[in-house]
Amino acid sequence: MTPTLAAPTALSVNLNKVALVRNTRSLGIPSVVRAATLCLQAGAHGITVHPRPDGRHIRSDDVHDLHRLLQAWPRAEYNIEGNPFHNLMDFVRQVRPHQCTFVPDAEGQSTSDHGWDLAADGDRLRPLIAEARALGVRVSLFMDPVPRAMAAAKAIGADRVELYTESYARAHGTASARPVLQAFTHAAQAALAAGLGVNAGHDLNRANLTEFLLQVPGVREVSIGHALIADALELGYKATVRSYLQCIEQAFAASAGQ
Ligand SMILES: CC(=O)[C@@H](O)[C@H](O)COP(=O)(O)O
Ligand SMILES: NCC(=O)COP(=O)(O)O
């Protein structure tokens, strides 16, 4: 059974793909700041960006422009993702977002495809986690759904883990969906037991989100980009955000009624 959260899971909209389209010309459209504004006006709880070192989508100027925009949205959370051994820490130092999510991507990787191996990288992550936290920035670690890794994430100082959900998204609606989802349930339980907050993201969408939140306990935030921006091309940003919020509300209402 999913423990009831005090509030529905927060929706952080990832704007990478808006920047990806914008970068194909030098006209500044579609605007990342305008997209953020419309998503926040529709009720999104936060904005996520992943400024990759190759600048293929979100660029340094976007990170700073969004930081300025979010000053006018005091309740909205800014989450910056990236590899702290590449370019992420510069943004953390300059912008001090509410949250940074450490992701172990190689430079030029096409998209995120694995979580941290803390046996290999834990010792060198520890001081960077401490630095970000000392700057007042919450630290989340992008992790595969491996229950035994959660205590290690806590031990090196993380506040939260972001469960990497691509395997769930791929399995959704297939015969293997149940054991895959169970792995996420167990990983979230282990994270909560270790004293970590739980986030989730990658390939979540309107078809798979509610079931995930119903089965995986205590998810504080989902960051969603690719599918949400694809939906926004058809429905517009505001209708799309409202529809994702409905998926979240549905799970919250059902778990509150348990
Ligand atoms: C960290 C993560 O989960 C990724 O989903 C990421 O933010 C997406 O990056 P791209 O938009 O570059 O595929
Ligand atoms: N952290 C995951 C994220 O921000 C968005 O991932 P996706 O929805 O673009 O796969």
UniProtKB/TrEMBL annotation:
Positions contributing to 1-deoxy-D-xylulose 5-phosphate binding: 52, 57, 111
Keywords of this entry: Cytoplasm, Pyridoxine biosynthesis, Transferase
Name assigned to this protein: Pyridoxine 5'-phosphate synthase
Similarity field: Belongs to the PNP synthase family.
Pfam families xrefs: PdxJ
Assembly and oligomerization: Homooctamer; tetramer of dimers.
Reaction catalysis annotation: 3-amino-2-oxopropyl phosphate + 1-deoxy-D-xylulose 5-phosphate = pyridoxine 5'-phosphate + phosphate + 2 H2O + H(+)
GO MF terms held by the record: pyridoxine 5'-phosphate synthase activity
Function summary: Catalyzes the complicated ring closure reaction between the two acyclic compounds 1-deoxy-D-xylulose-5-phosphate (DXP) and 3-amino-2-oxopropyl phosphate (1-amino-acetone-3-phosphate or AAP) to form pyridoxine 5'-phosphate (PNP) and inorganic phosphate.
Record EC number: 2.6.99.2
Residues under site feature: Transition state stabilizer: 162
Catalytic residues as annotated in Swiss-Prot or TrEMBL: 50, 81, 202
Residues that hold 3-amino-2-oxopropyl phosphate according to the record: 14, 25, 203, 225-226
Xref: NCBIfam families: pdxJ, PRK05265.1-4
Annotated compartments: Cytoplasm
Native source species: Caenimonas terrae
Pathway: Cofactor biosynthesis; pyridoxine 5'-phosphate biosynthesis; pyridoxine 5'-phosphate from D-erythrose 4-phosphate: step 5/5
Main location: cytoplasm
